[in-house]
Amino acid sequence: MNKITKLTIVLGIVSAIAGGVLAGVYQMTAPVIQAQNIKELRAGLSEVFPGSYKFEEFKGTLNSPDPAATFGKIYLVKKDGKLVGMIIDVTTPGDQAPIEMLVGVNKNGTINGVKILKSLETPGLGANANNPHYYVNKEKKITFLGQFKGKKITDPFVPKKDVIALTGATITSTAVSKGVKAAGVAAYDYMNKEAGS
Amino acid sequence: MKKLKIIWNGIVPSNPVLILAIGLCSVVAVTNFVKNALLMSFAFSFVLILSEVIVSSIRKWIPDEIRVPIFVVVIATFTTIAALLSHAYFPAVYDAIKLYILLVVVNCIIIGRAEAFAYKNGIFDSLLDGIGMSIGYSWVIIAIAVIRELFGNGTIAGLRIMPQTYQPALVMILPPAGFLVLGVLVGWLEWNIKRKEANKK
User: Fold this and answer.
1) CA B142 to chain centre
2) Which candidate in A2, A25, A26, A36 is best for mutational testing of the B interface (most B CBs within 10 A)?
3) Residues B76, A36: C-beta atoms closer than 8 Å
């Protein structure tokens, strides 16, 4: 047997064993991980819409009014079978990497809650957007995300005007505000068309 | 005594970060907060110790020409196992370390130790070398993280140490300070070693 064949066989055997072990571990952990993901998603959804609501995945698509904001999954929020709000998974370009967030919108056109799912902002500056102990309004203990609660979607959503910006992180503040606004407008339009028909 | 020396070797004389100076990119990345450094230490130790043991136990069957690809396969396998297990059973931990666990696979300390130690030594010695190197890596990154978090955020492992009026030096938790603190530690250790040598004379 020449050398190259021997080497190929040895490397093949090692890779096959490694592959087999990985397949085994994957089989073992996949159902647990999937259950974990569903639980996490539910926790995220009920964070932007706390209380006893039913969440349903929205089958259609909504167009984002802002080209910088892209929509992922969309959920309908129902209470006693009636549509009361929507949750949109929005992604906007952040300072270093895209910021993905869940935005809960009430049928009456106010924001119900915002939760950041993924972000890679600068620690100490933009990352404070997601810090539950960093208050943009220290007296009232309002966090950066907390300030969106109850905000009308007809507001301009511009940092340093109607949105309190994070110190030294205008890009992050703008990215989050844009995402919230886009989701709010799109969800409100859809829900009101639905009510009209 | 000789066995203890193998462990001690990784902690100070051949410390992977301060003396060998390998795998520094992940050191800078994870040392901004103590929690990150701790989690990285766990992921690192798991992969390093198991990889060294496996590489050492199959070293007689590894043809010299393809040893590096085989090391990579072994290391990547353990990294993926660590990622899957922590994702399934410690989701909160996984959330915090998923970025770093991927850094482990490209960490040159692990491939370096597989090549320099496990490939040439017995299983038990390789286990000890893995433990020593893991302790050596962990204490350094945790020490750097303590310094950076204390000055950059006023806390250690999330506990407030500095008074509320302390204005955190933000640069300390940004990447450049990783190099600054690392450099100071390397200098401090070198100074100590040189001083000891001088005293002996």
Assistant:
1) 9
2) A25
3) no
**What 3-state DSSP class applies to A168?**
coil
| A61 Cβ neighbours under 8 A, 6+ residues apart | A71, A74
Q: With CB atoms and an 8 Å threshold, state whether A18 touches B63.
A: no
Residue B43: C-alpha distances to residues A38, B14, B37, B89, B94 (Å) = 25, 21, 10, 14, 10
Complex ipTM: 0.74
Amino acid identity, residue A147?
Q
Give the distance from CA B19 to its chain's centroid.
Answer: 12
Min CA distance, B88 vs chain A (Å)?
A: 5
- The residue in chain A having the minimum alpha-carbon distance to the alpha carbon of residue B87 is A33
Q: Sort out which chain A residues have CB atoms less than 8 A from B171's CB and list them.
A: none
**The predicted structure's pLDDT at residue A124:** 73
Taking only the tens place, the pLDDT of each residue in A148-184 is 999 999 999 999 889 999 888 889 999 999 999 999 9
pLDDT in tens, B27-56: 888 888 898 888 889 888 989 999 999 999
Q: What is the mean pLDDT of chain A?
A: 89
- pLDDT, residue A19, reads 95
Q: Round to whole Å and give the CA distance between A89 and A72.
A: 5
Q: How far B78 CA sits from the closest chain A CA (Å)?
A: 9
Among A10, A22, A36, whose Cβ lies nearest the Cβ of B77? A22
- Quick: pLDDT tens for B125-165: 999 999 999 999 999 999 999 999 999 888 888 888 888 88
Of B70, B85, B170, the CB nearest to A29: B85
Residue extents of the structural domains in chain A: 1-48, 54-196
Phi then psi dihedrals of residue A99, to 5 deg: -105, 125
DSSP states of B132-148: HHHHHHHHHHHHHHHHH
Inspect the interface and report whether the beta carbons of A25 and B89 lie closer than 8 Å: no
